[in-house]
Prior knowledge:
The protein is an alpha+beta fold and 257 residues long. It has two domains: 1-89, Pseudouridine synthase (2-Layer Sandwich), CATH 3.30.2350; 92-257, 2-Layer Sandwich (Pseudouridine synthase). 22% of the residues lie in helices and 25% in strands. It contains seven helices and twelve strands. It has helices at 34-43, 47-50, 77-88, 164-171, 190-193, 234-243, 246-253; strands at 5-8, 12-17, 58-59, 68-74, 93-101, 110-113, 117-119, 126-128, 138-145, 150-157, 212-218, 227-229. The strands form two sheets. Strands 1, 2, 3, 4, 5, 6, 9, 10, 11 and 12 form a ten-stranded mixed beta sheet that branches. Strands 7-8 form a two-stranded antiparallel ribbon. The chain is globular and about 55 Å long.
Amino acid sequence: MRLPVLAETADWLALEKPAGVGLRAYPWDSELDLDAALNMQLQAGKPELVRRGATLFGSIYYLDPAISGVAVFAKNRDALADLRNRFGSGECTFRFQFVAAGQPAGGASELRSDAPLLPHNVKPKMIPSTAKGKKAFTEFRRIAESPKGWALWEAKVYFFRPHQVRAHAAVLEIPVLGDTLYGGAEVPTQRELHPKKQRSGLNFPAFHGLALHLAEVALISGDPKATIVCEPPKHLRLLLRRMGLANIEHSTLNGES
Length: 257
């Protein structure tokens, strides 16, 4: 597997992570662990990694395997300690984008959830718990709505826990499209998005997986060189185009909104 390099400095490397690939080992996950894979290949002397000048690779934050987008790895122990401290102190900024079912007319375009989150006893998910949950804050902004009944949202966080965006979106009744764990809407078929088309093969889902993407990470506030942008993967861009949300998504990622 080859992952595109989004940005790089002497201290860190940002890769475009596809859905289905994990960043680090976590009890809920069984997918490939990039922390382990990168270090294994670095120790094996793989040229593509050796020339990065890294003594190790360490992920700065945990990202659900189901989410695509920016994955940042420190390249030495000092950078790993510094960047993880920045993340843990809420000094970084993360902007997610996701698709949800459209709200009733008059629904708020800006929402915020501060529901404390607690891991479920049995299921691999987070649940709100004011008694035992840990603090979590997510700001949501609706970027666009489609006449086909779908909406594109942005979720902004400064520090996030596993599944936080997914859980908070569900709390606010805008669960992520395709997120069966948190009650997200089913992915529409191609025929539902294009009812006038009559050709065969349109009864299959227009998208597979979770319509949630980590589009931007700012490691140091106010430093454009430490801000990493990643456009959605091709299959998600295609879904947005079919839903009539592609132009909004493109302009937002490029800072035009």
